[in-house]
Amino acid sequence: MKVLVVGSGGREHALCRALARDPKVDALVCAPGNAGTAELAEPRPLDVADPDAIAELAVRVGADLTVIGPEVPLVAGAVDELRAHGLPVFGPSAAAARLEGSKAFAKGVMTAAGVPTAAARDHTEVEPALADLDEFGPPYVVKYDGLAAGKGVTVTDDRDAAVAAVRASLRGPDDRVVLEEYLDGPEVSLFAVVTESGAVLPLLPAQDHKRVGDGDTGPNTGGMGAYTPLPWASHGLSAEIVATVIRPTVDEMARRGTPFTGLLYAGLALTTRGPRVVEFNVRFGDPEVQAILALLSTPLTDVLSGRRAPVWRSGAAISVVVAAPGYPAAPRLGDPIRGLAAAGALTDVDVLHAGTRRDTGGQVVSSGGRVLSVTAIGSNLESARGSAYEAVSRISLAGAHYRTDIGEPSRMRHAADVHRADTAPGEDPTRPRKKE
């Protein structure tokens, strides 16, 4: 097969790594790609927001399969355009991609499907939104309705900050803001491949770290690191989420005449009332996918097509994001990155590029806020964590910053304590939960 991967971030580098290991894949193209993907796949220039350009490129390179990484082309209708050309593609239609493209739409689907989620209201005008803001009370949760590259969510105890977020979300005539109740408990990401027949193939659950600083401090980002599996979560958690969240959502989308196929991501909070959906995405999440695909044994094309359910290698994986100075507000770009070879030389470590390019002299420099996703696997999370941070220490990027607490044991003990509060007295949280 010849596979075209659309995108230029750490997610796309992880997809290219997995596809390069797939015995069915003998040629890869990544458009536009980055300095890391260029080592595995032929780079091609591409405007990822242009569905026509994506379809034209797939025809030109003779792609047997196109895998679309980012959300922007999915919401813009790239899958529809590719299908109109009779080209095989992995991803949802534009109508189905509204699950990510509009938080208000996703809330409506969840309500109709009976999916547990936070109470919410959406508004197009500032004053009614501010009235609801006070009704929900702190911690305030304010979400821009459309796409915002993972940074359109404000969670704060500061009312002034929440008011500012509401006003920033309603600058244009077509803007909408969603206000939600705050959900307590550790967050979990569950991805599932949904086939054309409606079958659901869940991947390993992972935990993302959205805040920029240690201890979940500072503003939200696109993600500063992730790990999988979750040693503190119940063994039946994935099956429970499929039964209560993924399956009802897929069924509701089919009932509406907009069947969902591709990758459905549920970001959840494990509250004291059980799992609650925080958001849906319609593509592989970054940086969770970097860790998840590192443990995949099954050829990726078999999983994407639904031919085989995923099989996982033993152990654990962790991904630590190295960010440019000033990220997420105003990242400084163009700084040289050194030590990549030394970091990648460590056993079971992949230095996945996210925001990189080669300058005119051939040197790898930063080109985005999240620059690298340093991903390691080990026999357990402690081993993987040690390898990942050792690799990070070998990389030099002026002013770079990263979180030091990804997969930290004390954070996992806290998550286990909160998760345990949702179990019956004497029940082991690592045992499958009984249905009520």
UniProtKB/TrEMBL annotation:
<protein>
    <recommendedName>
        <fullName>Phosphoribosylamine--glycine ligase</fullName>
        <ecNumber>6.3.4.13</ecNumber>
    </recommendedName>
</protein>
<dbReference type="InterPro" id="IPR020561">
    <property type="entry name" value="PRibGlycinamid_synth_ATP-grasp"/>
</dbReference>
<keyword id="KW-0436">Ligase</keyword>
<dbReference type="InterPro" id="IPR037123">
    <property type="entry name" value="PRibGlycinamide_synth_C_sf"/>
</dbReference>
<keyword id="KW-0547">Nucleotide-binding</keyword>
<dbReference type="InterPro" id="IPR011761">
    <property type="entry name" value="ATP-grasp"/>
</dbReference>
<dbReference type="GO" id="GO:0004637">
    <property type="term" value="F:phosphoribosylamine-glycine ligase activity"/>
</dbReference>
<keyword id="KW-0658">Purine biosynthesis</keyword>
<dbReference type="GO" id="GO:0046872">
    <property type="term" value="F:metal ion binding"/>
</dbReference>
<comment type="pathway">
    <text>Purine metabolism; IMP biosynthesis via de novo pathway; N(1)-(5-phospho-D-ribosyl)glycinamide from 5-phospho-alpha-D-ribose 1-diphosphate: step 2/2.</text>
</comment>
<dbReference type="InterPro" id="IPR020562">
    <property type="entry name" value="PRibGlycinamide_synth_N"/>
</dbReference>
<dbReference type="GO" id="GO:0005524">
    <property type="term" value="F:ATP binding"/>
</dbReference>
<feature type="region of interest" description="Disordered">
    <location>
        <begin position="406"/>
        <end position="436"/>
    </location>
</feature>
<dbReference type="GO" id="GO:0009113">
    <property type="term" value="P:purine nucleobase biosynthetic process"/>
</dbReference>
<keyword id="KW-0067">ATP-binding</keyword>
<dbReference type="GO" id="GO:0006189">
    <property type="term" value="P:'de novo' IMP biosynthetic process"/>
</dbReference>
<dbReference type="Pfam" id="PF02844">
    <property type="entry name" value="GARS_N"/>
</dbReference>
<comment type="similarity">
    <text>Belongs to the GARS family.</text>
</comment>
<feature type="compositionally biased region" description="Basic and acidic residues">
    <location>
        <begin position="406"/>
        <end position="422"/>
    </location>
</feature>
<dbReference type="InterPro" id="IPR020560">
    <property type="entry name" value="PRibGlycinamide_synth_C-dom"/>
</dbReference>
<dbReference type="InterPro" id="IPR020559">
    <property type="entry name" value="PRibGlycinamide_synth_CS"/>
</dbReference>
<dbReference type="Pfam" id="PF01071">
    <property type="entry name" value="GARS_A"/>
</dbReference>
<dbReference type="InterPro" id="IPR011054">
    <property type="entry name" value="Rudment_hybrid_motif"/>
</dbReference>
<feature type="domain" description="ATP-grasp">
    <location>
        <begin position="107"/>
        <end position="309"/>
    </location>
</feature>
<dbReference type="Pfam" id="PF02843">
    <property type="entry name" value="GARS_C"/>
</dbReference>
<dbReference type="InterPro" id="IPR016185">
    <property type="entry name" value="PreATP-grasp_dom_sf"/>
</dbReference>
<dbReference type="InterPro" id="IPR000115">
    <property type="entry name" value="PRibGlycinamide_synth"/>
</dbReference>
<dbReference type="InterPro" id="IPR013815">
    <property type="entry name" value="ATP_grasp_subdomain_1"/>
</dbReference>
